[in-house]
Design brief:
Elements: H1 2-6, H2 14-29, H3 106-121, H4 126-138, H5 144-158, H6 166-190, H7 199-210, H8 215-228, H9 234-247, H10 260-276, H11 298-312, H12 316-324, H13 327-331, H14 337-348, H15 355-365, H16 371-384, H17 390-393, H18 396-406, H19 412-427, H20 435-445, H21 451-464, H22 472-479, H23 483-487, H24 492-508, H25 510-514, H26 519-534, H27 541-558, H28 563-572, H29 575-588, H30 593-602, H31 609-625, H32 633-646, H33 652-673, H34 679-685
Helix pairs in contact: 2-3, 2-5, 3-4, 3-6, 4-6, 5-6, 6-7, 6-8, 7-9, 8-9, 9-11, 10-11, 10-15, 10-16, 11-12, 14-16, 15-16, 16-19, 18-19, 19-21, 20-21, 21-24, 24-27, 26-27, 26-30, 27-28, 28-29, 29-31, 30-31, 31-33, 32-33
Domain Maestro/Maestro-like HEAT-repeats: 399-665
Keywords: Repeat
Region (Disordered): 24-99
Length: 716
């Protein structure tokens, strides 16, 4: 019968060898000589009456493991994987040695019977076979875990040599039969042999995944093994690879119903641990998404497991969007992991059928003593706040209190996540009652030294302006002393965000500005006008484009009619357009000309060559169009001195522009020094000052004209 079941890959039936190897191992430990099993007719195991009570300690897998008490993966030849195995006393005295020779062949006979049963009965015989195997193994007088481990090792060694088809499927169902009763022991036996990646181990994981009766139990055991690990140790790495193998099988994700959120968060947390762990020299720093075939690193294996989990749950769009947004690359980066978590959470939030379970698992993790687990949970919690159904699950006061508490944390990353959460909260139109509580935290963060905190606060304030009944006047007053320094921040992203926030504020308050209201906002705009004009030439493209957009909003709100000139200056660096713009501003705000000149003078010492040249050119045109009575002699002397020093600038274009503007300052100073007389005589005798002529700028960027719509002076 054995020959028909397994084929003749070796002299003895291969299927029998799997269980017979266990019998021979037991006899060897009991001091009996090893020999070939008897193949003659023998009594069945259930017909035997044992002569003595076996000294066994049966271990069963708990139906629901506790978090943090995951199975420990033993090394080869070590104790079984049990949390208390190291504390259990060793069995006293030698094991009972069976005296009858016919008992030596019982297990081999059972192996032949089991294989035939599995092959002939198919899937329906798995449960009966599991009970038979358990009865036989427990009757051998050994620790059950040791026997399961030995049986799994035998399967790993022999399955690759079996022929494809029914023989191999029958052998793999032996593993499923074991896992049905002893899932924890089977997982503990397979995990140490999953590193390094092993094709035989992968095949066994796949077979467990396809069996609908056992795959859920095995996934739970792998989840606890992953959550119980303290870092990217062999146990966690092996569990990650095993999860990747199992979830890759179509239909296996359905077995995660009930613990899907736990599994999702465990994989994301494991990615954070892998990203922060030291890499070996041969491990690539960045996982290449174009890799084909098996994953080349533990991080890529965890990413593939996440993709399989999301795809199997109907989240194929999430996987695609993460790919397009670079989310997977961010998840595996040490410095970008939390950004990837925020992106993933925002996309998962749209599939709100898991929101309740995700929050239930996230809230305890927010107080975890493990920093990596806590930060990952905070990032996921923050990302989920972008979902509108969140408002139905958590009360506004609870969310706000938690986010404000994070602002007092000494860790900047925690404060950054809290500010992002406040920004997401500001977008929710239902949560409108606590703006006065949000504002102090956001405004206070503008003085932080960490660029992430300042950027998050600027973004949150900008979102706050998108709400109906946004507090424009209050923000104009509060941002008056805080925003202008940020317009000249050395960090490109902060500069661009601050300019954009000013544009959003002007757009929301344009109705009042047209009517002559909004005094604080009008003052803020005039105070920021020179920085906006100069940052049209900012080396940072984001800052330059943000300045252009904000100036377009100001032109619309103040009805300047200078949109065409602004766009022309931004894209073509046209002296004629800048001269017309300066003339209009000097005519409209003559009292602000000294402030305009003083602000521009500060940029003459900018470390950026384009800004130094732009400042020199702007001074030349402002002075040319200014009336002598509005600029005092002290300011002109200071301008002339600074422009004189700038004429020795190492950049020739800057030195040439400074020379031309210095001439304009000298002519205005001479005009101020003429004796006073009747007004008509002064007007008749005042000679016209020649306009400044500047050479073309060498810093001009390729034009993107038309982006803001410049077909006519009032269009925005």
């Amino acid at each position: 019968m054995a020959g028909g079941v397994w084929g003749r890959a070796r002299e003895a039936p291969v299927g029998a060898l799997t269980l017979t190897a266990l019998t021979e191992g037991i006899r060897a430990r009991q001091g009996q000589p090893q020999g070939p099993p008897s193949t003659g007719p023998q009594p069945r195991s259930w017909e035997l009456k044992p002569e003595a009570e076996p000294q066994t300690q049966a271990l069963t897998a708990p139906s629901e493991a506790e978090p943090g008490r995951g199975a420990t993966v033993p090394e080869a030849g070590s104790e079984p994987c049990s949390p208390n195995s190291a504390l259990e006393p060793a069995p006293e005295g030698p094991h009972q040695v069976p005296q009858n020779s016919w008992e030596e062949a019982v297990l081999a006979d059972l192996a032949l019977y089991t294989a035939a049963c599995l092959e002939e009965a198919g899937f329906a015989g798995t449960q009966a076979t599991a009970l038979t195997l358990s009865s036989a193994l427990e009757a051998r007088g050994e620790r059950l875990e040791d026997q399961v481990h030995a049986l799994v090792r035998g399967l790993l060694a022999q399955v690759p040599s079996l022929a494809e088809g029914r023989p191999r499927r029958a052998a793999l169902r032996v593993l499923s039969a074991l896992a049905l009763e002893h899932a924890r022991d089977v997982v503990c036996a397979l995990l140490p042999r999953s590193l390094p990646p092993n094709r035989a181990a992968a095949e066994l994981w796949h077979s467990l995944s396809r069996n609908q009766r056992v795959n859920g139990q095995v996934l739970v055991q792998l989840l606890w093994a992953l959550k119980g690990a303290l870092g990217p140790e062999p146990q966690a790495l092996a569990a990650t690879r095993a999860l990747g193998e199992m979830l890759a099988v179509s239909g296996c994700v359905g077995a995660t119903r009930g613990f899907y959120p736990h599994l999702l968060l465990a994989l994301v947390t494991q990615l954070h641990k892998l990203a922060c762990s030291p890499r070996s020299p041969d491990m690539p720093k960045i996982w290449v998404l174009s890799h084909r075939g098996p994953p080349h690193s533990h991080a890529s294996c965890a990413v593939e497991a996440l993709k399989a989990l999301l795809t199997g749950d109907g989240g194929r769009m999430v996987v695609t969007c993460m790919e397009q947004a670079g989310g997977w690359r961010r998840l595996v980066g040490a410095h970008t992991h939390l950004e990837g978590v925020l992106l993933l959470a925002a996309m998962v939030a749209h599939a709100d059928h898991h929101l309740r379970g995700l929050f239930a698992d996230l809230l305890p993790r927010l107080r975890s003593a493990d920093d990596l687990q806590r930060l990952t949970a905070m990032a996921f919690f923050t990302g989920l706040l972008q979902s509108r159904p969140t408002a139905r699950l958590l009360r506004e006061e609870v969310i706000l209190e938690r986010l404000l508490t994070w602002q007092g944390d000494p860790e900047p990353t925690v404060r950054w996540l809290g500010l992002l959460g406040l920004g997401h909260l500001a977008l929710n139109r239902r949560k409108v009652r606590h703006v006065s509580t949000l504002l102090p935290a956001l405004l206070g963060a503008l003085g932080e030294g960490d660029s992430r905190l300042v950027g998050a606060a600027l973004g949150a304030l900008r979102r706050l302006l998108l709400r109906p009944r946004a507090p424009v006047r209050l923000l104009s007053v509060e941002l008056g002393p805080r925003l202008p320094p940020l317009l000249d921040d050395t960090r490109d992203s902060i500069r661009a965000s601050a300019v954009g926030l000013l544009g959003s504020l002007v757009r929301r308050g344009r109705g009042g500005l047209r009517l002559g209201l909004r005094g604080p906002l009008r003052k803020l705009v005039l105070q920021s006008l020179v920085p906006l004009l100069l940052h049209l030439h900012d080396p940072s493209r984001d800052a330059a484009e943000s300045s252009e957009w904000t100036l377009a909003r100001c032109d619309q709100a103040f009805c300047w009619g200078l949109l065409e000139e602004m766009v022309t200056v931004a894209h073509y660096d046209s002296p004629e357009a800048l001269s017309h713009l300066c003339r209009r501003l000097v005519q409209r705000y003559p009292g602000h000309v000294p402030n305009f000149l003083s602000q521009t003078q500060g940029y003459l010492r900018s470390p950026q060559d384009p800004l130094r040249r732009a400042a020199a050119v702007l001074i030349g045109f402002l002075v040319h169009h200014a009336s002598p009575g509005y600029v005092n002699q002290d300011l002109l002397s200071s301008l002339f001195q600074d422009l004189g020093q700038l004429q020795s600038d190492p950049e020739p274009a800057v030195a040439a522009a400074a020379h031309v503007s210095a001439q304009q300052v000298a002519m205005l100073a001479r005009a101020r020094g003429r004796p006073r007389g009747p007004r008509l005589l002064r007007l008749a005798s005042r000679p016209a000052r020649p306009p400044p002529v500047f050479a073309d700028s060498p810093f001009q960027r390729p034009s993107l004209a038309g982006r803001w719509g410049c077909s006519g002076p009032g269009r925005v």
